[in-house]
Design a protein that fits this description.
The protein is mainly beta. The chain contains 2 helices and 9 strands. The chain has one domain: Beta Barrel (Porin).
């Protein structure tokens, strides 16, 4: 009798441990440093010049096809708004989601084309006598990763719509710009 009870308790313990393992999700964090270019378009091009963009993303892989991420980028730009100083530091910070496909390329490489959406804010820090301005921004993204093991080469294009408050008149407008970035993704296992 004692043997049957111990065997039953042992089987139940093993079954619950196996059930807990299969029901647990393993989320994989990623770190993504990037470098790229900020390209103003439309009326934004009248006020800002194309400039270098530096940044980083932190992502969490929820499954092989879905990520949530946060992004911070910095552009040391030049504006055409006023003559006393043309320097403007632009800070972009946002959060979003990405959906991707997984396409095997041989035995060791994966191609992961993706599309994403997100929202956040943008701060224009004018170097001069004009106050810093902050507004909301949203983006759509397209790109791809070429992954081998925990490391991936990443290309991304973002199309931003943001509010823009003129530092001279205070008038708010919706503006558009593009961001093109190349980076690495390191999948922490």
């Amino acid at each position: 009798m004692r043997t049957r009870i111990l065997a039953t308790v042992g089987l139940l313990a093993c079954a619950s441990a196996l059930g807990a393992q299969t029901s647990q999700r393993r989320f994989t964090p990623e770190v993504r440093p990037l470098i790229g270019v900020f390209v103003p378009t439309g009326s934004m091009r009248d006020d800002f010049k194309t400039a270098t963009l530096l940044g980083a993303q932190v992502a969490l892989e929820l499954s092989s096809n879905w990520h949530v991420l946060s992004n911070v980028s910095f552009t040391h730009g030049h504006n055409r708004l006023y003559a006393t100083s043309d320097r403007t530091n632009i800070w972009q910070y946002d959060a979003g989601v990405e959906g991707n496909l997984v396409v095997p390329m041989g035995e060791r490489w994966l191609f992961r084309p993706f599309a994403g959406l997100g929202a956040g804010g943008r701060t224009y820090d004018y170097r001069g006598e004009v106050d810093t301005r902050t507004c909301t921004a949203g983006y759509g993204a397209l790109g791809g990763e070429f992954q081998t093991g925990p490391v991936a080469l990443r290309l991304e294009a973002r199309d931003y719509l943001s509010c823009f408050e003129s530092p001279i008149s205070g008038y708010k407008k919706t503006r558009n710009d593009l961001g093109f970035a190349f980076g690495l993704a390191y999948h922490i296992r």
